[in-house]
Amino acid sequence: MTVQGSENTSRRARRSTTMGAMPLKDMPWWRWRSNVRSALHMLSDPVFQQECWLAGQDGYGDVTDAVYRLVEDTWLDNWSAEKYIGTIFRDAQEAALVDVAVLRVLRIMHQVGADAPVSAYLEHPAWPEAVLAARDAHVQLAVNDGEDPDRPPHPLHVLAMMTRRV
């Protein structure tokens, strides 16, 4: 029995307390933050969009999947990110940048339709502004989490592994 107890104790001691460089317990709703960050990351990277989404590369979903991750649990399509300061977002600056990105992306989605092909988004005249807004938000959140905003986006299976219950 003692051996099993020490195994359990050492197992707990070895559990990672970070997700990348981001402390797991740093933000109360870190899983939601992870989904928002993943979506913003993909929405903010035109090279990724061309090489993965437009090319139909498996493992990354599409624009609609990214928008869903952005607003799925947070309801950012119904209210301001300001509501989540201290739980998902660190401060008013992060929340304001996320709000701008959400509004720009959702405006395009409503115009082209949720089931539109990736090319309809990428060719939309307002898409560059949406990408820029997503980039501003992505960079702010990544830097605040101590991560490199310029690394390539993780495939969705990696996001799922990172956000498993700890």
Q: Tally the helices: what do you get? A: 8
Q: Averaged pLDDT, please? A: 85
Rg on CA atoms, Å: 17 Å
Biggest sheet: strand arrangement: 1-2
Look at the helices and sheets and give the structural class: mainly alpha
- Give the overall shape: globular
Counted beta strands: 2
**Low-confidence segments:** 1-19
Give the CA-CA distance, first to last residue.
Answer: 25 Å
Beta-strand content estimate: under 5%
Helix-residue proportion? 55-70%
Written as H for each helix and E for each strand, in order along the chain, the element string is HEEHHHHHHH
Main pleated-sheet profile: 2 strands, antiparallel
Give your account of this protein's structure:
By secondary structure, the chain is an all-alpha fold. The chain contains eight helices and two strands, in the order αββααααααα. The protein has a two-stranded antiparallel sheet with strand order 1-2. Strand 1 and strand 2 form a beta hairpin. Helix 2 crosses helix 7 and helix 5 runs antiparallel to helix 7. The protein is globular, with a radius of gyration of 17 Å. The N terminus is likely disordered.
